[in-house]
């Protein structure tokens, strides 16, 4: 029997998933959590085999909760985490995988795909929706950020890291504010991120702003 914990902040979604999965042979829903913090606590209390984790939840989101569960806060051996969400940006996919998630499926996936993903993750394998798998392959094929960021883009990113606004960056570099926005969009695309915070974090992790 595969024991499941469902973590989602929408009661209707939790109830729907619990109803669907409870009817599947070999699956048992042992707990439901409405946010990431509760997911970690209930995972420690109920010791599920797999945690179905949404990404966007109040208080503690799915990525942070996955990190804590993978780090052993829910006990050892750590439950396997399968992200089940409506979001599929490169930034979110990578953040979840880096946090320790064993799989990433979309809520719009057929029930059979979700059930198969649960069984795969419980067996120690990974599970990725076709859309997510394609995004990861495309990301791996991109040149490393170190080889594609220009000197000006690095300069802009360094000022972003220092807390400068677009207007302040434009003044500091003697360029137009629209040019700053263009540089930022190119930086986001090259790094595969969606916002300034993640761009700076990833750049620091890879030593681009040293």
From TrEMBL:
Q: Which residues carry this modification: 4-aspartylphosphate?
A: 54
What SUPFAM superfamilies does the record tag this protein with? C-terminal effector domain of the bipartite response regulators, CheY-like
- Note the InterPro entries from the entry: CheY-like_superfamily (IPR011006), NreC/VraR/RcsB-like_REC (IPR058245), Sig_transdc_resp-reg_C-effctor (IPR016032), Sig_transdc_resp-reg_receiver (IPR001789), Tscrpt_reg_LuxR_C (IPR000792), WalR-like (IPR039420)
> Which CDD domains does UniProt cross-reference here?
LuxR_C_like (cd06170), REC_NarL-like (cd17535)
Which keywords accompany this UniProt record?
DNA-binding, Phosphoprotein, Transcription, Transcription regulation
Q: Which residues form the Response regulatory domain?
A: 3-122
HTH luxR-type domain residues are 142-207
Task: Give GO terms for biological process.
Answer: phosphorelay signal transduction system; regulation of DNA-templated transcription
Source domain of life is Bacteria
Enumerate the SMART domains for this protein.
HTH_LUXR, REC
Q: Which Gene3D superfamilies match?
A: 3.40.50.2300
> A Gene Ontology molecular-function term?
DNA binding
Query: What is the protein name given in its UniProt record?
Result: DNA-binding NarL/FixJ family response regulator
Species: Microbacterium immunditiarum
